[in-house]
Amino acid sequence: MNYTQEVYKEKILALKSRLSVTVVAHFYQRDEVFEMGDIVGDSLELAKKAMADDKAFVVFCGVGFMGQSLKILSPEKRVVMPKIACCAMAKMINGLYYDQSIQKLEDAGIKSEDILPITYINSDAAVKARVGKMGGMVCTSANAQMIITKALAEGKKILFVPDRCLGQNIANMMGLKSCVIGDGSDPKESDIICYDGFCSVHQLFSVEDIAFYRNKYPGILIAVHPECDPAICDRADFVGSTSQLINYIQALPADQKVAVGTEFNMVNRLRPANTYILSSTKPECPTMNETTLEDLYLTLKAIDEGAPINEIFVDEDTAYWAKIALERMMAL
Ligand code: 13P
Ligand code: SF4
């Protein structure tokens, strides 16, 4: 099958009007896939809006942990993904690595009952389940600071997985002490102990890129996602999650230049002019970009034929504990 984009779009729209389906698309999806979304947003918005949806199938155009989180929160829904593409950062931690991290902290003299774990939503259900079992919760980049503030009130050490940059950036913003497991420092001396994971896409932005833009366009603003390295966030004018970046940039006067440090599909859609990508290397999330119009069409066609493909399932025990961790976030 090899139709043009226009033909795929027509076929997708026809199937969508006939079937009980909602197409959900993250802001980082390719433009043509994003256009087909009935619900679009960042990871938190997608989870919330898709939970409230009443169609039989949710067709989730995003990365694996997003479809999985929706299935955990709304087990009655049938969630399918045109591509079950796995976020590279989420892949950096699994249940075993999580258990080993807890062991390392215990070896360093921190009792497990004194640890409150928080996992970024960019993680597998097995990690969320372990966090839920230990009394912890999930966060997204949109609510990480609020979740950490609530967690600190319990007077425990925060173990933040898997994104060391998000953990360190929040710690810096809140004037807290942080470390990364294995960096040689004593974790007992830190408020937030981070796992050593990161997003390879958001590591592309450098201090030199910021200097280049500030030099080329005096007065330009630098706006970045908190998955960027702390050295980048410290030098930026604005640090925010996907939806916070959108709101900030779209509210700027039309002639205000801004260089943005996040995924390119989203940046290109933000504003007609005066918006630059803060890197000479294209910040393309390979897994977000995997989903094509053809994949979406084939997924809808399979539902129409009564044989859905790429359906998301989570085993009962994992789903039970992961849901607790997700719901603690939702409740806040
Ligand atoms: P958001 O939570 O902002 O949607 O981000 C998800 C993500 O993967 C960013 O790289
Ligand atoms: Fe994962 Fe980074 Fe892609 Fe976001 S941009 S989905 S964190 S690999």
Structure description:
By secondary structure, this protein is α/β, with parallel strands linked by helices. It has 3 domains: 5-86 and 288-313, Rossmann fold, CATH 3.40.50.10800; 90-198, NadA-like (Rossmann fold, 3-Layer(aba) Sandwich), CATH 3.40.50; 202-277, NadA-like (Rossmann fold), CATH 3.40.50.10800. The chain contains 14 helices and 13 strands. Helix 10 (230-235) links the parallel strand 10 (221-224) and strand 11. The termini are far apart.
List the helices and strands and how they pair.
Layout: H1 5-18, E1 21-26, H2 31-34, E2 39-41, H3 43-51, E3 57-61, H4 64-73, E4 78-80, H5 95-107, E5 115-120, H6 125-133, E6 137-139, H7 144-152, E7 157-161, H8 164-174, E8 178-180, E9 192-194, H9 207-216, E10 221-224, H10 230-235, E11 238-239, H11 242-250, E12 258-261, H12 264-270, E13 275-277, H13 293-304, H14 316-331
Helix pairs in contact: 1-13, 3-4, 6-14
This protein binds 1,3-dihydroxyacetonephosphate (13P) and iron/sulfur cluster (SF4).
1,3-dihydroxyacetonephosphate binds next to α3.
